[in-house]
């Protein structure tokens, strides 16, 4: 019996040689081919649009991608296959203009034994409707894989670099003279910053191609950035930057070696863009983000909305509405005029632009945000699950168990948008949510002090303990 394939918050992922196999990749490729042939718009001559297939640096990503491209060719689809590993933002950018759809073989920030497939349309992640349609087409037709159907291979990354160049203030960035430490985490975006800053200003860490990611998980969260933090301080650098395995997520470290949370990065960028570039529209964030953007929206009388976890939910809003700024907690940021998708490089360059324009250090920008919108200590804890949890059922059980007060503070609101978010009377909050891509229960919390945030995490761990067995 064929194994079940489900697309999560951003694509389908599995363990290599367990459920992410050539057989299953070919099943997905055929379903994608059927979807493309049924839905891709043809021109006045009846010619179908081109499709792009890219891959990251993971084990056998290039071979999986080659199979997908060959199956597309066998199904009479005009396809171009990347001739080298690329970041996911490159694939997303290509789906904005040169290609109708991009398929990316990557498992993003997951451990090295994982791989996956992402679908990009119109510059962003495919909607839930599209992925459900692809799932429905699985095994409807036998895999058509004809011998000798190799796709044209080409480097298309220049399209992306030109796009990025036109969407940041390169002139201003070139006035920035400080050193930047880049932790590429052995990922596909290695060397990308050097295309925008002189090599003498860039100190590169973990830039080599290593499918094992040096034995670490290529996720730019604080626990994985000790070397970056230490190097920034030792080299007296102005900023530390880390990208995940496929380059769409980003983390930043200030000149003191302090990790900047996504909440703080978002507040610095959003406030600057509103003040200096007259950004207008709605602010959208995933439910796993905090109160700083809500306060910014309140100050500038902008609409504010929270959506489910996964940048595709933010991207959907950006495609349908006038969204000024969108963000998710796992290092994904976008704003009006850019790709409606996560892009680590653009975020890093934009932050450098803010530093160059204001003449302020990263820590000074953070201090300004804290002074104007309040302090923010944001933490996340991941707890392993023995098996994937039923999110709706677990959320309802937790909701029924919630007290009226947590750590002496009144519960003001309970949101079940995606997991259970408990908002306290002073804006502090706690989110309990099973991951959509891994067998984990994620606990998020934010308050004005580390002590209070840790207390919220402790409460979250205690209340969920009976369900982790």
Automatic annotation (TrEMBL):
Residues 5-141, 160-257, 265-373 form the Alpha-D-phosphohexomutase alpha/beta/alpha domain. Pfam families: PGM_PMM_I, PGM_PMM_II, PGM_PMM_III, PGM_PMM_IV. Keywords: Isomerase, Magnesium, Metal-binding, Phosphoprotein. One of its GO terms (molecular function) is magnesium ion binding. One of its GO terms (biological process) is purine ribonucleoside salvage. Its cofactor is Mg(2+). Gene3D superfamilies: Alpha-D-Glucose-1,6-Bisphosphate, subunit A, domain 3, Alpha-D-phosphohexomutase, C-terminal domain. PROSITE patterns: PGM_PMM (PS00710). Signal peptide: none annotated. Residues 401-453 form the Alpha-D-phosphohexomutase C-terminal domain. InterPro entries: A-D-PHexomutase_a/b/a-I (IPR005844), A-D-PHexomutase_a/b/a-I/II/III (IPR016055), A-D-PHexomutase_a/b/a-II (IPR005845), A-D-PHexomutase_a/b/a-III (IPR005846), A-D-PHexomutase_C (IPR005843), A-D-PHexomutase_C_sf (IPR036900), A-D-PHexomutase_CS (IPR016066), Alpha-D-phosphohexomutase_SF (IPR005841). Belongs to the phosphohexose mutase family. This is Phosphoglucomutase. It comes from uncultured Elusimicrobia bacterium.
